[in-house]
Every structure is written in structure tokens, then in C-alpha cells.
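Quick note —
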Amino acid sequence: MEEWPFHDGNVHNILESRHIDIRQNRLDVDHRLQMHSSLIQRLSLEQELEGHQGCVNALAWNSNGSLLISGSDDARINIWSYSSQKLLHSIETGHSANIFCTKFIPETSDELVVSGAADAEVRLFNLSRLNGRGLNDGAITPSALYQCHTRRVKKLAVEVGNPNVVWSASEDGTLRQHDFREGTSCPPAGSSQQECRNILVDLRCGAKRSLADPPRHTLALKSCDISSTRPHLLLVGGNDAFARLYDRRMLPPLTSCRKRMSPPTCVNYFCPMHLSKRGRSSLHLTHVTFSPNGEEVLLSYSGEHVYLMDINHASGSSMQYTSGDASKLMTFSHEPNRLEHQPPVSNVFQNGLCTRSNSSVAARIEKCRMLVEMAKRSLEEGINIFPAIEACNAVLDGHGADVGPTLRHECFCTRAALLLKRKWKNDAHMAIRDCHNARMIDGYSFRAHYCMAEALEQLGKHEEALDFAVFAQYLSPSDTMAAKKVEKIKEHLAAAEDGKNNKASDVAHRSERRTGRRVLSLGEILYRSEANSDASQDGPRSEREDSDYDEELELDFETSISGDEGRDVESNILHGSLNLRFHRRGDSTRENVANGSCGSPSSSSQNDRAAYQHEAVIDMKRRYVGHCNLGTDIKQASFLGQRGEYVASGSDDGRWFIWEKRTGRLIKMLLGDDAVVNCVQCHPFDCFVATSGIDNTIKLWTPTAAVPSMVAGGSAGPETSNVFEALESNQRKLCRNREAIL
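Predicted structure written out below.
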């Protein structure tokens, strides 16, 4: 993994250019140097800040980076000095439950801070009232107290340059706008006097089981963010697969909680295509954030990976899709596309080079060819699969515009085969994308069609796989692999047909003997939920929803880890509370009627689905893998530095991970907690990172290691030989996430 450079340039050349080229923007140079790869490779633990008595769930810097604020399960807010790395204030907030979020209010000389907690309250504090007090400042009266949420407040957002407003996202399905100029308190939710008109986005009927379904359930909000470059843009994420981008200028006036409103129209939905049809109740977002320049968004999923997406897409571009596009991607078309009419690429492009004669470009292309050859050797030998995939990423995502179609086609096919051999979560879906891209280059590519058949077979889509396998056999009749693949898939289809007939017979037999409704056990509910969301994706939705029972139950569950109860030291198992919520399909209909129209009915009838207009969604641009996000629903993924050239995330294995944004290449793993790292916050201007998690301490990271290292962090991370073992362990946890949660 150390055989090719990163894309942020040579640090010595950058420093020289600052002095040689006076026309160059020195500020831009400073931004490039803040989180340079040469510094990231030297990151190590500098200090631990002690001052909390519970899990540290929230970290945030002030605008100039001189202060760090933290919130904890101990219901205290701590203010730390960046220069001295000392505790300045420890405030007893009065919250009755865990603090999940806290912020400095901009343009207030860092005197106003705000917190949100599991007690559903938002509290504002004026630090000027602490002048003259000691270190443990004790309880102070909040300057403002908002009690209008009915469930946990998971995230706060502030607008750069706005000292008067804070936004709060809650699991009650509302995003509220609190203006300090209009009022400093509100009655508790549910009281007869409660009539706060501060709901900016009402998503109590906004959750979608899949892209094809209309929104009809409460979207328990987990995260929100406001763009620093275009503050009218608001991003939210909750307990479904879709992040939503809103333009605050286009939203309706603020409303009260007494009447549920239809979900407002959003500018964009964001969701990786392969996650848009799952319909799994456990899949949800834990964090959403804008890039520093406001052009990209980062999404972190529970039980999934971290994904990067573009905001500014061209209408109809390949990054935008509808509900039918995922099926088209997996369906074989017997009619060749316009590129398939051309002869195979091996006859058109003899050397794989573009016509550009620039020597530096030629050198990069030669390096790319070497990387592809290295990846192919790893595939043949079955070793070093992870570095080989990263080598292909470096070619396709780092130099895709430089290499010619032949080399690009070869790299797509090689990466697809490597992904299918690695078999991490959703690797098969990524392989399908690569095979599709390879077919767009060469419509008669045997490797592209064979790998597509293999990927579809791994996903259990045997009928679609058979079409690609048969065409691969047609392209290379003498290839025994293709013939064996066709026979294997036919055997699967025959076995599946027999099983379907047997099941239909059993169902008919049970129906004859049944005289009334039977109560489902928890095990049956879980099995049916898992089967509907994963194993039965091959069939149309109407078939999956046919039930042997008069009524079906849906199960939503969530876990929480708090304090010292969160980890069993000897077994390294996370413990916490398990909250189960049961409801019959259609219950939300009655609830919606009682609280006002939701705009889209909750009935699951086919007529309702036919009437629903499917929205277009922005697809992923990059995926970041290696970490594990299961145990907590406050795990962050963030951009590092003012240019946002690197992406970081916490993990359930006590480490935090850093990837190169452009290629998804893993650059660093660092041990940051005895159990789980949740928060990763980079300093606004310096190469300095603060992390926190289940431990009571805050870890501070600086580039002070004597020797740079890739991925392995020496004493602050796994040994090099254990890196892949740690990665594999995390992926095994993700693949069995239902077992982990239960």
C-alpha cells in the first residue's frame, strides 16, 4: 500500500511554490498543508483530556479554533483551551439525560453555547455568567430552554455569521428552528399551552422503506448540517436510507406540532443505489455533513459504510437515478448499445494510451499500468486482495481521465473480480457497477459478463445471472468456467423452483387447518423481517408482501450504550439497552388521520404505490470501507482540513480511520478508545484532531510521530501484520449486524 503517492502533491514542492511563485494564493497553500498526507502519516496521540464522568458524545470547535466544547453522558458541558489543552469551564447543564450535541453560537465572542440531550431539551448558556467562578462552575441557569421536542435531540446546527438562531434535529421527526429573539422558553411538549411554531421541517410522515415507496412513517432524525458556503442549504438524515437536502428559502412557514404536515419537497435525495431498495428497518444514517467547499456531502450508515456524493449534478447525469435504474443495471440487454457495435477494444486501442504527449501524463499512465498488473497478480495468487483493490481505485478514481479505454476496461474487470473474491459487505454491488462500466467500453467483453454473472449469483439473483453467464459462454465457447457457471446457476434455479413449490404446498396445508389468527413469536417476526428485506429481493415487491396472516407486524429496534455499562472488558462485547417498538401495518394511517394529513396514505395497496411519483436520487461517488458502525447511532464521519481532501470516521473496534477522499484509499488506523470511537473533529486551521467515544476522556492527535507510517499506527494502532485482521473482523461484524444488535 506504500507503492504509489497520494494526490496532494509533494510537501517540499508545495512549500517552495509559496516562495517562488508570488502569484500563487498563499492561503490556498496553507490549506493544502494543513492535513497533508505526510502529516497524517505521522499522527499520534499527544494527550488525553480528563474532565468528564461519562461517555463523551459531542465535540465541536469554535470558529477560530481557540476553544473546544464537549458534551457527555454526565450531563455536563466542558470548555477546553486549545493552546494550553486545559479545562476552562465545567458546566452542570441541568439536563436529566445524556448530552448528544453541543455547539458554540457564532458571532457571540464564544459566550453563548447550546446543548441538546436525550431528555428532548435544547438549552442555551451564557458563559459570561461564569466570570470569577472556579473550574467546576456547577449549575447555571440556562439563558433559553426549549422543551418542545418529544424525543431525543440528536444534533444541533448553527449558521456561520448568525448569532440568533440554532436548529435542532430530534427523533420525534421534526427539525426545529429556535430564534433567541422571539422567545427564550417554551412549555413542555404535550402541555395544553404548548403551541410553539418553530417546526421548519416536519418529517413525522417522512420515512421511506425504499425508493419506490411513498413516505408514511416517522423519520427519527439522527443528524443535520447547514452548508458553510451556502447557508440556505440544509441536510438531514434519519432512520431510513435517504439523506435529504432542503433549500430553506423554499420551505413553507414555520408550523406547530399540533398538526402533522406532508413532508416538504426537498432539493435532492442522497442514497447509494444498492441501498435504495432494501426496505430494512434497521438501516439508518448516523451522520450527515457538508464538505468544506459545500460541493459534496458525506453520509455514514449504521451497519454500512461511509459514502461520498456530489451536490451539484447535471440533470439526467449518471449520478442521478430512479427506482427502476437499479433493476436495469442488473438486467442483460440482448440489444447491443452504441458502443457494442464497435470492434473489441483490444483491436482499437493497442497501447491503452491517450493521445496526450505530456511526459508527466505518460509517466502516470505507466504507473497506472504497473498498478493494474500488480492487482492482476494478486487476483491470480489470491493474496493481498485489499491492497490490490486500492491499486485499482488509484487508477480509476485518481487517474481515470488519463488512461485510455483498454487499460480502464482491464482495471474495471480486475477490480470486479477482486471485489467478488474479497466478499465484504456490498462488494458484489460494487462489482456490478464495474462490470457495467466495462460493458460500456466493450460490449463483447467475456470478463465483464462472466464477473457480472458471478456478482448476481452472490446476490441470489440467479435468473439475471443466467442471462449474463449464457452470453459469456457464447463469447467464449471453449471456456470451461463459463460452462460450469451456466450449469451451476441452472441447478440453483431448479432447486429454488422445487423449494417454492414445496413452500406453496405447506402454506396451503396450514391454511386449511387454521381457524383463527396466530400470535407471532419474536423469532418469527425477526426472521420474517430479515427475509423480506434481504433474501427475497429477487421477487417483485407485490410477491414479497403476500402474507399468510391477516395482519403483519413490523419491528423497529434501537440500541444505546451509556457509560461504563457499554463494554464487557473481558469479552469485548458491547452491552446496552434494547428498545423494541411493535406496530401493525396501517397503524400509522389511523395516527395520521388523528394528527392531520400526511400527504401520502399509509395504506400498502398497489393503487397507492402506482399513484406515488418516485423521486430522483443522487447516487454515491465514493465508498470508504474498513471500519464498523453498529454499536452506536451517533457515530460521525467528517472531512479533515479546510480542503476536505481526507475523510475520517470512528469505529466500533475502538479505532478511527482516515481515507484519501479522492480514491477511498485507507491511509491511517489509530486506536482512540477502549470500546468505540464516535466523534472525530478536525481543528479549523491546524493539523490537530480531537476524538472521543465510550471512554470518559478526549484524545488529541498531532503529527508528532518520529517515523511516518501507513495504516498501522505503531503504539497508537495495530501492528502492520494485524491490519488486515482488524479490517476483516470489522467486516464480519457488519455482515452479521442483526446478530450484533440483538
